[in-house]
Amino acid sequence: MQPAPDQLLDPPLHFDALVTPHRSLGRKGFVILMSGVVVVNLVAGLICLLKGAWPVVGFCGLDVALVFWAFRANYRAANAYETVQLSDSELRIRRVDRKGRARAWSFQPYWVRIELVEHPDESVDLYLVSHGKALEIGHALSSPERLDFARALHRALTRMKAPAAHG
Question: Which residues, at least 6 apart from 105, have a Cβ–Cβ distance to it below 8 Å?
Fold first, then answer.
């Protein structure tokens, strides 16, 4: 397992996956949600202001700002992704964090094996193991998705290693 360059793998690719964090709330949903938060806080602040509790207005504004900040941080984290690519000569994993910093690992596909670690809470971790070193992949996936991903990658590795695939 060594860091790999950012150059493209030689075709053919037997497996090419992009793993991104799931975000269930799109831009339109965010605008609707934030509009609701603003309206509720505006109404609550106005009611408190009319009753003489003017300091509450500041806390309503702070509430809106904190919700906006939390979503902003969440959307920034969504910029992270991981690619998993398999060619005849290399299995490459490339991770890009939320700030755009990239790291890559390269495995010789004939030596790598897939390992699943099951936990008591029924979660599953997925590792690529080679020469005594392990790399966790698919962290952004749910446990069932990780199992499906592991099966698909295992099938691709098996097909690629089969003698008939090269004949």
Answer: 1, 2, 3, 4, 92, 93, 94, 135
- For 58-107, how does the pLDDT look when each residue is reduced to its tens digit (9 = 90+)? 999 999 999 999 988 888 777 889 999 999 889 999 999 988 899 999 99
**Of 151, 152, 140, residue with least CA distance to 19:** 140
Using CA atoms, how far apart are residues 156 and 135, in angstroms rounded to an integer?
18
Residue 11 sits at φ, ψ, to 5 deg, of -70, 160
CA distances from 97 to 29, 41, 94, 102 (A): 25, 34, 10, 7
Q: In 10 A of CB 116, how many CB atoms? A: 14
Are the C-beta atoms of residues 45 and 165 closer than 8 Å to each other? no
Q: Could you give the CA distance from residue 61 to residue 38 in angstroms, rounded to a whole number? A: 8
Maximum alpha-carbon separation in the chain: 84
- Helix ranges, the chain (H): 27-50, 55-77, 143-161
Q: Is 109 exposed, middle or buried (0-12, 13-18, 19+ CB in 10 A)?
A: buried
